[in-house]
Amino acid sequence: MIMILCITPNPAVDRTLTVPGIRLGEVSRAAHALVAAGGKGLNVARVARAFGAEARCAGFLGGHSGRLVAELAGREGLCGGWTWIDGETRTCVIIVDPRGGEATVINEVGPEVTPEDWARLTAQVLREAETAEHVCLSGSLPPGSTTESYATLLRGLRDAGRTVWVDTSGVALAAALTVETVGIKVNGAEAGAIVGWAIETTTDALTAARELHERTGAPVALTLGELGAVLVSETGSWHARPPALKIVSTVGSGDAFLAGLVVALAEGATEPEALRRAVAAGAANARSIGGGRFDLDEFNAILSQTRINGG
């Protein structure tokens, strides 16, 4: 069975509230609440398991909230080799209005970590990676992190012969781009901040992805919301677009995309077919509430209507 190690440096307790017709400044009542182990890597693991892969989780956890994340993850079968720190794991609140198809996300910053914490995380991750050929590092870095610590972890995984994908932004993304052969998954805003210009069209996305690919020599996937996504590698470039859908919440769609891409590639799919599956996974996620949760029958229906074109 395919094993994927999913690393979330800054996990959270995700509290998703469904609030129909919410209006700021007024008292509202949630129609439904979902509390789950949160963070982008946990969403990746959730979707990877849905696609039949085995997934393990890693990252920093601390305090009562950290213990809750570990417990909630364990209930889902998301086993983890967590690195425990002082401080309290953050809580993030996602407010979904099913009438509008949009979500408001309020993310706490996260607990402070030290260089010693990063050294322990790196050692833990390298041990966990001994049984996983594929590794995904997803999300933000907690306060106190350095880009050198992050890059050292990436280089260690690469040098151990693992296939590594990164989904992050800002200084962490800039650091990842200095480590050759690390695959990059970004959205338009994240890529635009790096290349220095707005990414608004498929052509823009392909140009930006090619620029990032030249820096790392590894595949680059760039997501564009309802426009789909592009993938650029040394063998070619492609664009895939899902059918028009009524969106419920896009929270976790990029994580579902990454899981779909990595699992498909691990199973031996061609790069364009892997991109098609990834786009369908991200679209299916946008049809439900809760990151990394969707119906496989709906995924298959969307996949049958997802088109792929050469760049």
Task: Give an account of the 3D structure.
- The chain has 311 residues and is an alpha/beta fold.
- The chain has 10 helices and 15 strands.
- It has helices at 40-50, 63-75, 115-128, 147-159, 170-176, 188-195, 202-216, 253-266, 271-285, 296-304; strands spanning 3-7, 12-18, 32-38, 54-58, 60-61, 83-84, 90-97, 102-107, 134-138, 163-167, 183-187, 220-223, 229-233, 236-241, 307-310.
- Strand 13 (229-233) and strand 14 (236-241) form a beta hairpin.
- Helix 8 (253-266) packs antiparallel against helix 9 and helix 9 (271-285) crosses helix 10 (296-304).
- The radius of gyration is 18 Å and the shape is globular.
CATH-assigned homologous superfamily: Ribokinase
The largest beta-sheet arranges its strands as 4-1-9-10-11-12-13-14-15
Percent strand equals 15-25%
The CATH topology corresponds to UDP-N-acetylmuramoyl-L-alanine:D-glutamate ligase
The helix content, as a percent range, equals 25-40%
Secondary structure elements and their pairing?
Blueprint: E1 3-7, E2 12-18, E3 32-38, H1 40-50, E4 54-58, E5 60-61, H2 63-75, E6 83-84, E7 90-97, E8 102-107, H3 115-128, E9 134-138, H4 147-159, E10 163-167, H5 170-176, E11 183-187, H6 188-195, H7 202-216, E12 220-223, E13 229-233, E14 236-241, H8 253-266, H9 271-285, H10 296-304, E15 307-310
Parallel strand pairs: 1-4, 1-9, 2-7, 5-6, 9-10, 10-11, 11-12
Antiparallel strand pairs: 2-3, 7-8, 12-13, 13-14, 14-15
